[in-house]
Amino acid sequence: MFEKILIANRGEIACRVIKTARKMGIKTVAIYSDADKQSLHVKMADEAVHIGPSPANQSYIVIDKVMEAIRATGAQAVHPGYGFLSENAKFAEALAAEGVAFVGPPVGAIESMGDKITSKKIAQEAGVSTVPGYMGLIADADEAVKISNEIGYPVMIKASAGGGGKGMRIAWSDAEAREGFQSSKNEAANSFGDDRIFIEKFVTQPRHIEIQVLCDAHGNGIYLGERECSIQRRNQKVVEEAPSPFLDEDTRRAMGEQAVALAKAVGYASAGTVEFIVDGEKNFYFLEMNTRLQVEHPVTELITGVDLVEQMIRIAGGEPLSITQNDVKLNGWAIENRLYAEDPYRGFLPSIGRLTRYRPPQEVAAGPLHDSGKWQGDAPAGELAVRNDTGVFEGGEISMYYDPMIAKLCTWGPTREAAIAAMRDALDGFEVEGIGHNLPFLSAVMDHPIFIAGTMTTAFIEEQYPEGFNGVELPEQDLRKIAAASAAMHRVAEIRRTRVSGRMDNHERKVGSDWVVTLQDVSFNLTVDADRDGSTVRFDDGSALRVASDWTPGDQLARLTVGDDSLVVKVGKISGGFRIRSRGADLKVHVRTPRQAELAKLMPEKIAPDTSKLLLCPMPGLVVKLEVEVGDEVQEGQALCTIEAMKMENILRAEKKGVVSAINAAAGDSLAVDEVIMEFE
Predict the structure, then answer these.
(1) For FRET with 532, which of 171, 299, 441, 505 sits at 20 to 30 Å CA-CA?
(2) pTM given for the model
């Protein structure tokens, strides 16, 4: 077995590989760019080598620089993680020339399966059902429009070397095909150094289901069930689970056997994933094969007990698989939520900055495993697993140069319902401050009836949130619980304030018991009766809730029991109350005396400033291109400029007809959030 492995990646996947290598007694080498000097993967590794400037195309995807790090440290093998060089055949060839093992498939498999065009041709020749499309290379936008018309809209424009949603666009018209072709080429070139593009039919109402395969160099191959990855935004997965709530055993077996047959046809040896589009009748179509470890691999590990990274390392070391298909048992259910540095209240645009607070929920093991990496029987009944794969820490920075993913929060339960319940609690207890993030949105998805029913498609987000995400409106039953909890917490805070030292004699402040709690435009008149064990909150309709908690003023997370239910909320202080966040809702909760509530109704509302004649930068990013000049008349929907952030191009469009009166930025400028790009008459 190897003594030292270099991880040619960064962030959470680098940390993930380091954990398994450490478990196996293998030393690790991290590589890092200028932006990642203080990163968690650098701190975790036994050694770390600086490889260049912050942009990935000047550091992480420069093969020569990675090879220099390998030579300098004497690493015997390289794990590429996902993204960057993980599916780069030239990198695998360079490693082979140096006598360094690649913890991934053979070069031939990377070339044939890693390239989306070639892989679809091979799949067709092997008799695998594929989505209609044009497999050849496309020269320019005019040809893209012509091909799109031949296939029939809508079409998917995709980067041949793409992955993770990069270099992908859906076009419903000639104009969108032309525009999407150029944006896809640009993103593909920046992210993968390969701007080749192909087009295929976009299947409406599809489910995205993928099969995890594991093959060795001795001709053995198995599949480890499937992953449901249908909840996506901009073709980037957000929520994954295993197994799929949609598949039956016969379909699972058919997809698995086909995936393994395809892998064996190209001499595959490592962990890999065969992705399918599945329609409502359970017909499945080959989409692509990812010749690497998938981002969502933890959910497969949680339901099978197989450490995929360990298996990849052992296969790269020449070992045969110790697991047969009969050994693979799907145990329970696992769900993964991807925590992104994206602000859901700003259209999920990237958010960068310092993590002033980062407190993930405590990890909990699901049950004992065999040394072979298999379950040692079922996990204890009712015990829930919580796993958080991350590459950040409190006080660290989220950079504009890389993918916006902060962490992958996973839960396991004996049933799907139990796994969802565990995820809800884990999300409620996950504290992130300092940047915009999608925790509220993830909480909303976990409570959405379509997700709960397991009937989602890849159109889930765009169909259920067509106007974007603006938070969750909680039902009155939940509002009553939060109102009761807030009143009880407010009383605790008020009592502390009355006990402040240095107060004047004969000026003792009394804390009353009658309060008016206002949240989500609803007011509750209630009375708080406290004792040593908690508070009894009585509403004016005669109902009452018992509130118990060890919360103290200043705590940013409160775990309470309200009535018969547990409640976990994030607590922030605002004037006259709290900012409460729970289950996707972000609430301003005002706790007032009856007289204060009476006067509050007379206060005028603050009017937001008028920005209707300004184009503001919606995210920190780089100006790639300006599409208009001063004096131009623009129409609603017209492209105004392109901003690049976190490897994604974002086209900003005119919201209404107008004339450009001033332009305050130029191509190449770095802009902050809400910086004025241009003004209109």
Answers:
(1) 505
(2) 0.83
